[in-house]
What we know:
This protein is of the alpha+beta class. It has one domain (4-195). Helices cover 25% and strands 30% of the residues. The chain has three helices and ten strands; from the N terminus they run αβαββββββββαβ. It has helices spanning 4-36, 55-68, 188-191, and strands at residues 41-43, 80-82, 91-98, 104-110, 115-122, 124-127, 137-142, 148-156, 159-169, 194-195. The strands form two sheets. Strands 9-8-7-6-1-10 form a six-stranded mixed beta sheet, covered by helices on one side. The longest helix has 33 residues, at 4-36.
Amino acid sequence: MKSKPIxxxxxxxxxxxxxxxxxxxxxxxxxxREIKGKPLVKFDWNCAAPSIYPKAKLSxxxxxxxxxxxxxxxxxxxxxxxxxxxxxRPEYLVPLACGATGNCAWGVFALKPPRFxxxxxxxxxxxxxxxxxxxxxxxxxxxxxxxxxxxxxxxRNARYALSGKSYPIGPLNxxxxxxxxxxxxxxxxxxxxxxxxxxxxx
Length: 202
């Protein structure tokens, strides 16, 4: 039979975990306020195409960004194009390095002049247009067959950078094996995102 101090310790540990989970959810919901009402587009590696990648204009800065990510793979040969700031000129999301589970480090690049706008990481990327400003980007990272994590990237100091804590996705009311926290459902507004290509998730 557990002693009172041990039982109290277990209770406090569980309580702290619940508070941390709630804090993470509140923080992410605050970051998502601007994104929730927008028509989102969802894409993955399958939606990137060699025909879209402006290799001649981006290859030099893409190579620099790839080294920054510690990627040892061959040079990227594809991209996904999307006009993030709604200025009539597309930005290019280039998979700099990808793992076996489908997660990729996506470099974000612009033309005129060619420049690197940061890196976002995940299997699925959720984006939208925002006139005159750079929109927030949400990513889903595949961690196992039963769980994943959502991350939010905001544009600060001329770069996309991770903002806030990860939002755990997995079985409800269960402690997730990889992340060690309670699982949450995928938010409805992300489920409503339009797939950018037919082969997504393939």
